[in-house]
Amino acid sequence: MKGILFDFNGTMFPDTPFHVAAWRRTIREVFGQEMNDDDYWNHFHGTPNVDILNILSHGEMPLERRRELSDLKEVYYREECLRHPEDFHLAKGLPELLDALKAKGVPMAIGTSVGLVNLEFYMPHLHVTDWIPMERIVYSDGTRPGKPNPAVFLEAAKRIGLPAEECIGFEDSIMGLSALRSAPVGKIYFVDCDNQGEAVLKDFPGATMLKDYTGVTPKTLGF
Fold it and tell me: What is the pLDDT of residues 129-153, one digit of tens each?
């Protein structure tokens, strides 16, 4: 392997509780319903907001309205991040791994479903561009399909000048893992920050599971 493709939310930044809280509030206010946990894990986790809202509205909500509600949900999400500064940080062991990978000159990129507003929100707190420059972060800008389509990871691989087959991929969601497999990347790591464990791995038998990045080094990744 010659490079690394990271998902961001839930993979580099373990923020699922913030998303869950924001979706619960949005769905309650907009649809007058409580979010079903199974639906979140099976259909929402790792899926672009406008696609989630399409599912929730049974395909009846216009795209413009879905974009408005997507923005509202992200406002609630950012409020949750700031409300819990003790949990607003990169995954355990990740800064050390990123330092070591950068020192070895390993090409790294990010392929994420997040939009530009949230990326700009993260930077003063998480300092991701200390390791991966903005031009190597492929985010949701409406120009490509969301995961499980592999487009975001194919573009991320292109930005570091490598075919996906020569990259390691890190993901935390079923949708994202499916995107990595479809790319297809050479090696998949499942970052199980949310304790989904074997329920996810059974569908991705070649993936390696991590709880966090403690003890992960360039050497253990094969660099």
Answer: 999 999 999 998 888 998 899 999 9
How many angstroms separate the CA atoms of 75 and 23, rounded? 11
**Type and span of the H or E element at 164:** none
Gap between the Cα atoms of 180 and 169, Å rounded: 6
d(CA 56, CA 31): 8
Contact 173, 199 (CB under 8 A): no
Q: Is 210 helix (H, G, I), strand (E, B) or coil?
A: strand
State how beta strands 208-210 and 3-6 pair: unpaired
Tens-digit pLDDT profile for residues 158-182: 999 999 999 999 999 888 999 999 9
Q: Where are the beta strands (DSSP E) in 51-153?
A: 108-111, 137-138
* pTM of this structure: 0.89
Neighbours of 124 (CB within 10 A): 7
Count of residues in the chain: 223
Order of strands, edge to edge, in the sheet holding 167-171? 137-138, 108-111, 3-6, 167-171, 187-191, 208-210
Residues forming a β-bridge with 109: 5
What is the three-class DSSP state of 111? strand
